[in-house]
Design goal:
CATH topology of the domain at 170-378: Transferase(Phosphotransferase), domain 1
Number of helices: 44
Strand content: 5-15%
Distance between the termini: 36 Å
Oligomer: single chain
Number of strands: 11
Largest sheet: 6 strands, antiparallel
Helix content: 55-70%
Radius of gyration: 33 Å
Structural class: mainly alpha
CATH architecture of the domain at 170-378: Orthogonal Bundle
Length: 955
C-alpha cells in the first residue's frame, strides 16, 4: 500500500502543476519528483484522472482513488477467472470500489455476454459493500426497456460480492447525437427515452443521483440505456434529510449535493438539465470541460448557469453544424423561447422551483415538439397566439371537430343560415329567431378564435359546455332552429367520449322530426348514425338497432340508388348489430360495406376506415388473427392512399387492432409499439380523456401483462378505469374487471384476481346477459382458470368442461374458443398432477392452434413445457429435459417475454435437479429467481416451486 506521506506528496505535486501548460508542466514535474519514478507515475495518473473522459468524481472519488494507489501495472489477475457462471474476458472500467468486466457464460447452458461488476477486496469496507449491494438490489427491482437489467448476482468463492448486468454496446448520448448530427427535435425525441427511464425509477422510489452522458448509452438501434445505479438512493423507508454518503460527479452535481442538503428526485432533474444543455448547445452550463481544474470546477458551479442561447452563440462552427446544419447564430436563434425555458427550469438552484417530476419535464418537451405552450413559463398573449397558429397550420383539433361536424354531419351552419333566410322570407315575425340562432353560432364558435382561446385556454370541452349552456338560456329559439344545433353538439360530445350527454342532445334534436326532402333526410340519417354509436357505447343495443334501421330506411327512401348512402347505411347497421351482440350480422354488414367502398372512385375515408377497423376487431375476437392483421394493414394502407394525416384519430383504432393482432400472433414488442402509437395519436387529436383513450390504455395493460411487466400493466389498467365514463355499460365494466383480474392472476395474487372476476360475472348476470353468450363464456373461462391456480380443482374442472362443450356446440371444434378451453383443461390437469388426463387434451388442442396462430406464438413453447412437465410426472426425465430445452430454445428465438423465459428456466432447473445435476440447476435457478422475485408475488404457483428448490439447493 502507498503510505500517507506518499499520497500527500503526490497530491501536492498534482496541485502545483495542474494549472500549468504542457511544456512548463513537464519541467515542473521533473523538478518536483526529483527522479522518484513512482511519485512521477502517481502524479501523472492524477493528472490523467482530472483530464480523462471517465470523469474523475464518480462514486467515492473513484478515479482519484485508483490514481493514488496505482503502481502503473496494467496486468489484471482477474482476467480469465470464473465467477459463478461467468468468465471474465476484458476490463471495461474501474472505480473506487472495484472493476467492471466483460464476461461470458462459462457453464455451457447457452451463449451470453454481459458486464460483471466486482467489488475489490481492498475496497470492501462496510460502507462500500453496503453501496454495492444496494445497487444490486435497486437493479433487481427495476425492469424497464431503457434501464440495463440485472442478470445474475452473488458472492464469489473469494467472498467478493458481484452482480452481472446486461452489457450495452453503445455510445454516450451526447457523442451518439453528435456523430449522427441530430437536429434539436431529434435530440429532444431521443431524450424522452431518458425521461421515461428516470420517471420509472422515481415511481419505484429510486433517485439515480449520478445522471450524465456516460451513464446514458445509445445502442445501434437508437435505444437509450440508463446505467450505473452505484450511488442511487431509495426513498422508501429512508430519511431524505440524511446527508451522508455524498458520492457524486462534480460536473453534474446539483447544489444540494455540493452543500450536503437533502436529496430528492429534484436532484435528478438538475442533472437532466445539465445533460439537455450539453445536448442542445454543445457546452456545459457552467463552462466546465475535461481540462477544468478541480478548484475551478467548484468555483464555477457556484455561479448562475449560462443561458442556453448564449452558450450556443459561443459554440464553434462544428458544434453548431452537428445540431442540424446550424451556424452558431442560427443555433442560438433556434434555442430561444420555450426550449431555453425548459432547460432553465431544470437548473434552478432551489429544488422546489425545478420541475416537479420527470413527467412534467417530458410533458413540456412534448409541448415544444408540438408547438404548444409549456408549463415552465407563462407566455404573453401574443406568444400563445403565435404558437396556436403555428401548430394549426392545417386544422386545429378543436376547429377540425367543429368543422367536420358542420360540414360532414348536419351542415348546421349552412342549413341554419338557409333556414334563417327562409323564415325571414316566409314570416317577418320569425326574423328574431333567425338572428338569435346565427348570434348563437357567432358567440359560441368565436370562442375558438386565437385571440380569445389563447387568452382563456379554451378547450374543446369548455367550448361545447359554453355552447350548450347558451342554447339552454335562449328559450325563445324555436325547435326548427334549436334541433340542428342540438344534434351538432351531440356529434361533438360523442367525439370527446361523452356518450351520455350526446344521447340526450341527439334525442332532443331528433324528437318529432320528419324530413320532407332528400337533403334533410340524409342529414337526419347521419345524425341517427351518431345516435347509434352513442347508444352502442352504453350497450343499449336494442335502441341502437332501432335507430340504425330508421336511418337505413331514410337512406333507402330518399337515395335508393346511391352507393355512398348504401355504404353509410351498412356501417351504421354493423355498429348496431355489434352493440346488440349479433356479431355474425355485424361482420356481414362490414364486409358488404367494404365491397361497396371498392366500387366508389373516392369512398368516404372515415366510413371506410371504420369498416376496416371493426372487421379487424371482430376477426381478432373470433380468433382469426391472420385475417384481423390483414384487415388492419389494409385499413392503414387505405388511410395512406387517402392522405389521412398521421395524427388523425381515424388511425388510432386501426393501430389498436394492429396491436391486438400482433399480440395474438405473439409479437408482443410490436404490439406494445402499436398500442402506444395509437394512444399518442388519440391523445394528441382528442385529448387525454374519453372512452377510446380508456380502451386503448386497457389494451396497453394487457400487452404489458403478457410481457411480464405486471406493475406497469396494473397502472395502465387502473388509468383506463379512471377514464371510463361513469355511465358505462355492464359489459365494458365486466371487461375492465376481468382484465385487471388477469393481471393480478399473472402476478400471483389469486384472491384479488378471483374477487375481480366474480364481480365481473355478477355484473353480467345482473345485466341479464345469457350465460351461453360468448362474452359471458369468456369471462367464466378466465374465472375457471384462476380457480385452478387457486387450488379449487373440482370447481374449475366442472366449469371448463361445460364451457368446452358449449364452445364445441356453438363455435365448432376448430374455433379459437374450443382450442383455448381445451388448453386450459390441460393446464388444470398439470396442476392436478394428472398426465394421463392432460396429455390427450394437449395433443388435441395443438393441431387447432397450428391452424389458428403463427408458429411464433407463445402457445407452442407452452406446449413443450407442458409435455416436459407431464414427462417428469411419469418419470421420463430424459424426455422432460429435451422438451424443456426445446421450449427455452423456441422462446429465445421468438424473443418471448422475460417472465416466460424465467419460468421455463426454473422448470428446467427442477428437471436437472431430479437428474442429479445440482450445478446446472443452481445456475439456471440463479438466473430465473431475480426476475420472478421482482415481478410476481410469493404465492405465485411457479415462484413457490422455484423458491422450494432454491432452499433445497442452498441458494
Amino acid at each position: 500500500m502507498i503510505d500517507t506521506e506518499r499520497r500527500r506528496r503526490a497530491l501536492a505535486v498534482f496541485d502545483e502543476v495542474a494549472d500549468l501548460a504542457d511544456p512548463e508542466r513537464e519541467e515542473r514535474l521533473a523538478e518536483l519528483c526529483a527522479g522518484d519514478a513512482q511519485l512521477l507515475a502517481q502524479a501523472r495518473a492524477l493528472l490523467a484522472a482530472d483530464a480523462g473522459d471517465a470523469e474523475p468524481f464518480r462514486g467515492n472519488a473513484a478515479s482519484w482513488g485508483d490514481a493514488l494507489g496505482s503502481d502503473v501495472d496494467t496486468t489484471d489477475p482477474m482476467l480469465g477467472r470464473t465467477i459463478g457462471a461467468w468468465r471474465l474476458v476484458e476490463v471495461i472500467g474501474r472505480g473506487g470500489m472495484g472493476a467492471v468486466y466483460a464476461a461470458e457464460r462459462s457453464d455451457g447452458a447457452y451463449a451470453q455476454q454481459a458486464a460483471l461488476k466486482l467489488i475489490r477486496a481492498s475496497a470492501d469496507s462496510p460502507a462500500a459493500r453496503e453501496r454495492f449491494l444496494r445497487e444490486r438490489q435497486i437493479l433487481a427491482q427495476l425492469q424497464h426497456p431503457n434501464i440495463a437489467i440485472l442478470l445474475d448476482g452473488g458472492i464469489s468463492a473469494g467472498g467478493e460480492p458481484y452482480f452481472v448486468m446486461e452489457r450495452v454496446d453503445g455510445e454516450p448520448i451526447d457523442r451518439w447525437c453528435d456523430a449522427r448530427r441530430l437536429g434539436l427535435r431529434e435530440r429532444a425525441i431521443l431524450f424522452l427515452q431518458v425521461l421515461d427511464a428516470v420517471r420509472y425509477a422515481h415511481r419505484n422510489l429510486v433517485v439515480h443521483r449520478d445522471l450524465k452522458p456516460s451513464n446514458l448509452l445509445v445502442d445501434a438501434d437508437g435505444r437509450v440505456k440508463l446505467l450505473d445505479f452505484g450511488i442511487a438512493k431509495q426513498l422508501e423507508g429512508t430519511d431524505v434529510t440524511n446527508t451522508h454518503d455524498r458520492a457524486l460527479t462534480f460536473e453534474y452535481a446539483s447544489p444540494e449535493q455540493l452543500h450536503d442538503a437533502p436529496i430528492t428526485t429534484a436532484t435528478d432533474l438538475w442533472q437532466l438539465g445539465v445533460i439537455l444543455h450539453r445536448l442542445f448547445s454543445g457546452a456545459h452550463p457552467f463552462g466546465l470541460t475535461r481540462d477544468t481544474p478541480v478548484a475551478k470546477q467548484l468555483q464555477q458551479l457556484e455561479r448562475e448557469p449560462e443561458p442556453l442561447t448564449r452558450a450556443a452563440a459561443h459554440a464553434n462552427a462544428e458544434q453548431a453544424a452537428q445540431r442540424g446544419s446550424h451556424t452558431p447564430a442560427s443555433l442560438s436563434r433556434a434555442l430561444r423561447g420555450n426550449l431555453a425555458q425548459i432547460v432553465q427550469a431544470c437548473l434552478r438552484r432551489d429544488p422546489e422551483a425545478r420541475y416537479a417530476s420527470a413527467d412534467a419535464l417530458a410533458n413540456d418537451l412534448r409541448a415544444w415538439l408540438d408547438d404548444r405552450p409549456i408549463a415552465a413559463t407563462q407566455l404573453s398573449r401574443n406568444e400563445r397566439a403565435r404558437l396556436w397558429l403555428r401548430r394549426n397550420r392545417t386544422l386545429a383539433v378543436s376547429a377540425a371537430a367543429i368543422a367536420l361536424a358542420l360540414l360532414a354531419g348536419t351542415g348546421v351552419a349552412l342549413w341554419q343560415a338557409h333556414e334563417a333566410r327562409e323564415q325571414a322570407r316566409i314570416a317577418g315575425r320569425e326574423n328574431a329567431n333567425a338572428r338569435a340562432a346565427l348570434g348563437f353560432l357567432t358567440d359560441t364558435l368565436a370562442a375558438a378564435a386565437p385571440e380569445r382561446a389563447m387568452n382563456t385556454e379554451v378547450s374543446v370541452r369548455q367550448l361545447l359546455d359554453k355552447a350548450r349552456a347558451e342554447l339552454d338560456k335562449r328559450s325563445v329559439v324555436e325547435p326548427r332552429v334549436r334541433q340542428p344545433i342540438q344534434r351538432m353538439l351531440g356529434h361533438l360530445y360523442y367525439s370527446l367520449g361523452e356518450p351520455t350527454i350526446a344521447i340526450d342532445l341527439y334525442e332532443a334534436g331528433l324528437r318529432g322530426l320528419e324530413p320532407q326532402d332528400r337533403e334533410q333526410a340524409l342529414g337526419v340519417a347521419d345524425d341517427l348514425s351518431g345516435l347509434v354509436d352513442a347508444l352502442g357505447a352504453l350497450e343499449r343495443g336494442k335502441e341502437s338497432l332501432a335507430a340504425a334501421q330508421r336511418a337505413a330506411a331514410l337512406r333507402a327512401r330518399f337515395a335508393p340508388n346511391d352507393p355512398e348512402q348504401r355504404l353509410r347505411a351498412l356501417n351504421t347497421l354493423g355498429s348496431a348489430h355489434y352493440s346488440a351482440n349479433d356479431l355474425d350480422r355485424a361482420t356481414e354488414a362490414w364486409r358488404e360495406a367494404l365491397k361497396v367502398a371498392e366500387t366508389l372512385p373516392a369512398p368516404p375515408a372515415d366510413l371506410t376506415i371504420n369498416a376496416y377497423q371493426m372487421l379487424s376487431h371482430l376477426l381478432a375476437f373470433n380468433g382469426d388473427i391472420a385475417q384481423s392483421m390483414e384487415q388492419a394493414e389494409r385499413g392503414l394502407a387505405f388511410a395512406d392512399k387517402q392522405a389521412v394525416p398521421a395524427e388523425s384519430p381515424l388511425r388510432a383504432s386501426l393501430l389498436q387492432n394492429k396491436s391486438i393482432a400482433l399480440r395474438g400472433s405473439g409479437d408482443l414488442a410490436g404490439a406494445e409499439a402499436a398500442i402506444r402509437q395509437a394512444i399518442a395519436v388519440q391523445e394528441r387529436s382528442a385529448g387525454k380523456g374519453g372512452t377510446l383513450v380508456s380502451v386503448l390504455y386497457n389494451d396497453l395493460g394487457l400487452t404489458l401483462s403478457d410481457l411480464g411487466r405486471y406493475r406497469e400493466a396494473i397502472e395502465a389498467l387502473q388509468h383506463s378505469d379512471s377514464l371510463e365514463d361513469a355511465a358505462t355499460g355492464p359489459e365494458n365494466t365486466a371487461i375492465n374487471l376481468v382484465n385487471l383480474g388477469l393481471v393480478w392472476e399473472s402476478a400471483g395474487n389469486y384472491p384479488k384476481a378471483l374477487a375481480l372476476m366474480e364481480d365481473a360475472l355478477d355484473t353480467l348476470r345482473q345485466s341479464g346477459m345469457p350465460v351461453d353468450q360468448v362474452r359471458y363464456r369468456m369471462t367464466e373461462r378466465s374465472y375457471a382458470k384462476c380457480l385452478g391456480l387457486s387450488g379449487r380443482f373440482t370447481e374449475a374442472q366442472v366449469r371448463l368442461e361445460r364451457l368446452r362443450a358449449l364452445a364445441r356446440a356453438r363455435d365448432g371444434k376448430d374455433s379459437y374458443e374450443y382450442a383455448l378451453t381445451t388448453l386450459y383443461l390441460a393446464l388444470l390437469a398439470q396442476r392436478m398432477r394428472n398426465p394421463d388426463q392432460g396429455l390427450p387434451l394437449l395433443e388435441e388442442s395443438m393441431p387447432l392452434w397450428s391452424a389458428l396462430v403463427p408458429t411464433r406464438h407463445r402457445v407452442f413453447a407452452l406446449a413443450h413445457r407442458l409435455r416436459a412437465s407431464f414427462a417428469k410426472m411419469q418419470g421420463n426425465l430424459v424426455l422432460a429435459e429435451r422438451e424443456q430445452r426445446a421450449a427455452l430454445a423456441r422462446q429465445l428465438v421468438d424473443k418471448a417475454p422475460p417472465m416466460d423465459v424465467a419460468f421455463a428456466r426454473a422448470e428446467l432447473a427442477g428437471i436437472l435437479f431430479e437428474r442429479g445435476d445440482s450445478t446446472g440447476a443452481r445456475s439456471l435457478l440463479s438466473e430465473a429467481l431475480p426476475a420472478m422475485r421482482h415481478s410476481v408475488e410469493r404465492q405465485h404457483v411457479q415462484r413457490l416451486e422455484a423458491e422450494a428448490l432454491a432452499r433445497t439447493l442452498g441458494i
